[in-house]
User: Which sequence fits this backbone?
């Protein structure tokens, strides 16, 4: 029934790279296969830009390299980027009208590094405007095949959200429209959509991946990371993405490039898994709790030990994040003024009027809300009461993690309190903010975190298990996830319609 080419989209990145190296498939054939799938499934709204010519040119170059036998780790593997990374060959919108018509003169460092490892770019993926959101319902951009903005749909149930802000990224992997993708995570935007769509995603330690060319939301929190079906594939991509970029990103860490897959095979017998009581409180829905509990028991079977721990300021991470992230956003987004890039209002009287009209027309409601909150908490008289207090509590949250890591090696819990909700069900911004409770603490502390498929909850929707590691322990996290994926098949399950 299945022809050779329809199998391509079921291959892992690791297997696909091997088939490309051994010339069982060509990079052009592979790229074309995924482009065809992206177009056939455009109802999902995952892609916002394709450029078939550019993709196939990259694939031909990959084939030429493969023919010489000098291939990199990802040569010929097609991937797609969240539309928050600037790219020369594709327009970049950050999900916003204000970047209408913008074409970057350079590629983001993450994009360049993946290209240097041999990856071929399939296109750009939908996301919440400036990565602000938890459901991908804040995108102002029309997906490929649409004339107007349309929701990104969860392939497990088309009436539900994919999560956000990297919603298009999670859907592309879940629906096999790309073998792997990039995402960004400021407060959970890789882990939560990975959880909602049943894929694996990791956000590294803050500073591991360069932010150069990644359109800034909250600079002290933003991190890039990969999403794929397995931890093994994420390790391959993450190894290519990370590394110092000291001249271009002042928060880039001066640590050597690492092979995060080197210890995937390590035994996890005796691994101490910290289980924070605060992640299992009243707000956690029963179906997610059951799936996460079962996943923890699977770890016990694999030889790990569960250690009860406390992260006492978990609840405070919501007000702290929703003060600090908007504060940084209000400053970062001041550059979108109609002068330098993208949209400019057509009719205005003078410069200030041009700024005002451009920003009023170009930004969506959620972005405006955050700019206003950010400007407010940074203003004279409120700075001490809000911004400074939030900074202090941020430090305490990071300290709480260090206290917890005295007793455990990794921390595990749910990635989100519920499975993916229905499109339009959370129109109140606060309801969205509250759903970030389990991802925000690691973001505020700058710790690496990931989500991996751990079971199914209400409506047959995927549930993600979140693993949080101490600084620079990405390999350990990916190893723990890999062991789980060797023993289970949740990450291989697929939405019925596919
Ligand atoms: N949901 C969070 C927000 O809306 C996190 C977004 C992100 O990680 N980019 O800010």
Assistant:
């Amino acid at each position: 029934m299945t022809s050779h080419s329809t199998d391509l989209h079921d291959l892992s990145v690791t297997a696909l790279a091997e088939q490309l190296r051994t010339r069982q498939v060509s990079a052009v054939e592979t790229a074309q296969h995924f482009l065809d799938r992206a177009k056939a499934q455009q109802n999902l709204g995952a892609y916002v830009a394709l450029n078939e010519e550019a993709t196939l040119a990259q694939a031909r170059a990959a084939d030429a390299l493969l023919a010489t036998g000098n291939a990199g780790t990802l040569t010929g593997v097609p991937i797609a980027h969240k539309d928050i990374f600037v790219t020369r060959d594709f327009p970049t919108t950050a999900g916003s009208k204000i970047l209408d018509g913008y074409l970057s003169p350079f590629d983001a460092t993450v994009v360049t590094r993946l290209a240097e490892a041999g990856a071929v770019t399939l296109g750009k993926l939908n996301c919440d405007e400036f990565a602000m959101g938890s459901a991908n319902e804040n995108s102002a951009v029309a997906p490929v095949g649409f004339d107007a903005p349309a929701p990104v749909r969860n392939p497990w149930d088309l009436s539900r959200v994919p999560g956000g802000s990297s919603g298009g990224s999670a859907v592309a992997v879940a629906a096999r429209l790309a073998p792997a993708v990039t995402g960004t995570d400021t407060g959970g935007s890789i882990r939560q959509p990975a959880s909602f769509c049943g894929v694996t995603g990791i956000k590294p330690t803050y500073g591991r991946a360069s932010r150069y060319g990644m359109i800034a939301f909250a600079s002290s929190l933003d991190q890039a990371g990969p999403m794929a079906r397995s931890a093994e594939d994420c390790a391959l991509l993450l190894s290519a993405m990370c590394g110092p970029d000291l001249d271009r990103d002042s928060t880039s860490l001066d640590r050597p490039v690492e092979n995060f897959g080197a210890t995937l095979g390590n035994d996890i017998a005796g691994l101490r898994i910290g289980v924070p009581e605060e992640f299992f409180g009243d707000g956690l829905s029963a179906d997610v709790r059951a799936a996460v509990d079962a996943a923890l028991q699977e770890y016990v079977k694999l030889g790990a030990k569960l250690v009860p721990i406390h992260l006492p300021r978990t609840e405070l991470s919501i007000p702290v994040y929703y003060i600090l992230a908007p504060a940084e956003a209000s400053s970062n987004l001041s550059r979108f003024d109609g002068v330098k890039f993208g949209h400019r209002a057509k009719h205005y009287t003078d410069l200030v009027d041009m700024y005002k009209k451009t920003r009023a027309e170009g930004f969506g409601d959620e972005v405006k809300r955050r700019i206003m909150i950010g400007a407010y908490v940074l203003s004279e008289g409120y700075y001490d009461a809000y911004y400074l207090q939030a900074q202090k509590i941020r430090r305490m949250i990071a300290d709480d993690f260090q206290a917890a890591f005295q007793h455990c090696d990794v921390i595990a819990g749910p990635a989100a309190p519920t499975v993916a909700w229905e499109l339009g069900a959370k129109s109140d911004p606060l309801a969205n903010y509250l759903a970030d409770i389990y991802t925000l603490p690691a973001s505020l502390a700058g710790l690496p975190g990931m989500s991996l498929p751990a079971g199914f909850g209400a409506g047959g929707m995927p549930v993600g298990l979140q693993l949080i590691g101490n600084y620079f322990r990405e390999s350990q996290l990916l190893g723990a996830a890999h062991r789980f994926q060797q023993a289970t098949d949740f990450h291989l399950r697929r939405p019925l319609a596919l």
In short: Residues 131-134, 165, 185-189, 217, 325, 436 surround glutamine (CB under 6 Å). The chain is about 35% helix and 10% strand. Residues 3 and 9 are 11 Å apart (CA to CA).
